[in-house]
Amino acid sequence: MIIEHPLLGPRDAQEFVYLGDASLIDRPDGMAEDSVECFHDYLYLRSNPAGLHRELWFHEGGDRSWLVVTRDTVTHEIVKVELAADVARQRGRCR
Amino acid sequence: MAYSAFRIALEAIRGHAGWSPVWRDATPRAEYDVIVIGGGGHGLATAYYLAKAFGVARVAVLEKGWLGGGNVGRNTTIIRSNYLLDANEPFYEFSLKLWEGLSRELNYNAMVSQRGVLNLYHSDAQRDAFVRRGNAMLLHGADAELLDTEGVRELAPFLNFENARFPVKGGLLQRRGGTARHDAVAWGYARGASRLGIDIVQNCEVTGFRLKEGRCVGVETTRGPIAARTVGCAVAGSSSRLMGLAGLRLPLESHVLQAFVTEGLKPCVPGVITFGAGHFYVSQSDKGGLVFGGDIDGYNSYAQRGNLPVVEDVCEGGMALMPMIGRAKVLRMWGGNVDMSMDGSPIIDRTPVDGLFLNGGWCYGGFKATPASGWCFAHLLATGEPHPLAARYRLGRFLTGDLIDEKGMGAQPNLH
User: Fold this and answer.
1) Which pLDDT score, from 0 to 100, does residue B1 have?
2) Using CA atoms, how far apart are residues B236 and B390, in angstroms rounded to an integer?
3) Banded model confidence at residue B263, pLDDT cuts 50, 70, 90
């Protein structure tokens, strides 16, 4: 698989480490009343779709940036690549 | 019809005109006591033991494609019980004992061959870990033997013992481990179940669950609705998709695991051998092909095929361990979808929906578990209570913290 890095252009997926579902960006509030259930859901439960999947890849063998890759889990086709930092800021995180 | 040597001789005289289909391809009825979704090894074994051991005969197995067309036909056929943890080892040892009597039990040749499983170690630390695991196996009544370099050399003189980086220092051998004929396992259980009156329905995909006041009362399928008070899902690889139809999210990711087979060679590999420094394992099929595999590709996938970097990685592992295979040609390679769970261990449990039960999360070790998984799942479906040997394979263990993390990798499915 070739990942179109937003800054570096096309890079082989072998340069990356895979983490998983991009929902891991949305870390729950550890001080909330229901934080035990929230962290269980956050840490262990996955939507695991057959089809388009937004997921986190780390460019370990490159510029060490985190990317959000939108990829079809049935065909392995990659349709969109974003910097995870941009996605996180859009979701209201400071970084 | 029971199979026997006499029967074969009789059919030989008659020109083999008297054989009948191995199982009955059923049309679904409107209602059953139990529906098992998934006509693979685990689903068929569940149905067989439901009728045989628990006296539940009004059972249907629903398969969306053809019988045994999923992971039971796509694995590397290894059977073993060499686990460390208390939650795992008794379960897998029970499974191995069922394997040992399986062909007789089913009156069907599953070609169980106890040719031994040898896990190699390459350092002192690894030897210590294997000693510990071997002792755990012995304590649970399994067999384990620690071999030094010379012991390994006697079994497998072709290994690269003098590898500069990863010399072979010895191995942990389970002589009762080995291989079985994977397709015959599916066919044998299907035949056994069918003879006990169970309906095996092919080309019948489940498209939804019928829920009434929070309880599962049946399924919607491509061949019409079917009612049942108890529905069990054994569709590892696609568990998340199926349970998603009931509104559940599972602690699973689906990944692709590749396997390979070479052209047929003369007998050379005595049993199953695993490389302790890279991820590579190999055995030789009765036809002569080297059957081998390694790591999962590592990203979510439902594609049933992997990519080339893992092919290269697996073959490098093979070359590092046994350079003699360098001239052999890979004949075929394929991929299977597996449920990778969050702690690397399976789930056999109730779900939050009454009447709906889950058997999944087998990671890449489901084949060896087939008999025990079927037995324990049948126990759960028939009695509503988990079987003692599978008592810790609970769906809720991730909330309570009772994880069964054999490799100690944490909630990172692609590392298990």
Assistant:
1) 76
2) 17
3) very high
Q: What pLDDT, on a 0 to 100 scale, did the predictor assign at position A79? A: 97
What number of other Cβ atoms are within 10 A of residue A59's Cβ?
Answer: 18
pLDDT value, residue A92: 86
A13–B contact, CB cutoff 8 A:
yes
Interface of B with A in 335-374 (CB under 8 A): 342
pLDDT number for residue B43: 98
Q: Kindly report the number of other CB atoms within 10 A of residue A61's CB atom.
A: 12
| Residue ranges in B101-161 assigned as alpha helix (H) | 102-106, 124-139, 149-155
Total structural domains in chain A? 1
**Does the pLDDT of residue B83 top 90, yes or no?**
yes
Residue of B nearest to A72 (CA): B301
What token pair was written down for B188?
A: 């044998």
| A50 shares contact with chain B (CB less than 8 Å) | yes
What contacts B204, CB < 8 A, 6 or more positions away?
B28, B62, B63, B64, B221, B222, B223
**In which domain, by residue range, is A29 found?**
2-91
Paired tokens of B106: 């089913």
For B23-60, the pLDDT digits (tens) are 999 999 999 999 999 999 999 999 999 999 999 989 99
Angle at B178 between CA B174 and CA B181, to 5 degrees: 165
Range B49-87 burial, b when 16+ CB lie within 10 A, else e: bbbbebebbbbbbbbbeebbbbbbbbbbbbbbbbbbeeb
Q: What is the pLDDT along chain A (95 residues), one digit of tens a residue?
A: 999 999 999 999 999 999 999 999 999 999 999 999 999 999 999 999 999 999 999 999 999 999 999 999 999 999 999 999 999 999 888 77
Q: Tell me whether residues A48 and B252 touch, CB distance under 8 A.
A: yes
CATH number of domain containing A13: 3.30.2270.10
pLDDT at residue A93 in the model: 84
Residue type, position B293, single letter: G
DSSP states of B331-365 = EEEEEEEEEEESSS--EEEE-SSBTEEEEE--TT-
Query: Which chain B residue's Cα is nearest to A1?
Result: B307
Least Cα separation, residue B39 to chain A (angstroms): 20
Task: Confirm whether the ipTM is greater than 0.85.
Answer: yes
Closest partner residue to A18 (CB to CB) among B251, B298, B302 is B298
Judge whether B302 is closer than 8 Å to chain A, CB to CB: yes
Question: What HEC string does B188-240 produce?
Answer: HHHHHHHHCCCEEECCCCEEEEEEECCEEEEEEECCCCEECCEEEECCCCCHH
Q: Which amino acid is at A19?
A: L
